[in-house]
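Reviewer 2 asked us to include a model.

Predict the structure of this chain.
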Amino acid sequence: MDMAAALERHETGQSELERVHGVSFIRLRELNEPVCLEMLSYWKAKRGDRHMPSPDDLKPAEFARIMPYLLLLQVDHDPFDLTYRLFGEQVAISFGVNSGGRRVLDAYPDNPTLSRELFRFYSYIASERRPFAAAGTMLGAGDRIMRTEGVYMPLSYDGERTDRILGCSMKYDDTRPGFLDDDPLSP
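Predicted model (structure tokens):
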């Protein structure tokens, strides 16, 4: 978290993401979503005794049924930037846009505040080099209020610097039963 964001959080008790979307960090042990828990367990298994696993350690065939709920960000360092490399189908549906291949700061042209807050959120995860969980409510496509829970895990080629962030995010629209809440872990 940059100094301005940390100061804002300290002074107001919440970030812009929390005020606008109702999403905040939660403890990893507070995760309830089975898909998120499975991806966190997978990340931990691939990490072993290292600080974080390498992107090369991930084998998509091992979590293929969860791919629609995943996003993968590329972290560039000189200059610092974040780009969505994978934007799963269910993530795209919930946001109303497929941001794959887009810089995070340009990902939501109709909502630049969301782009800036997500950039700060992911930047913090990259700098801390450890997984984080988030939960709450957010404004999705079509101005739908959705419940969300996600886990965001850093990946590193050299074991020290975050090069990618793998996210797993589940969203539920309470006004449309069955929308975005099918269970990918069910046979």
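The chain has one domain: 3-172. The longest strand covers residues 145-155. We have added this to the supplementary material.
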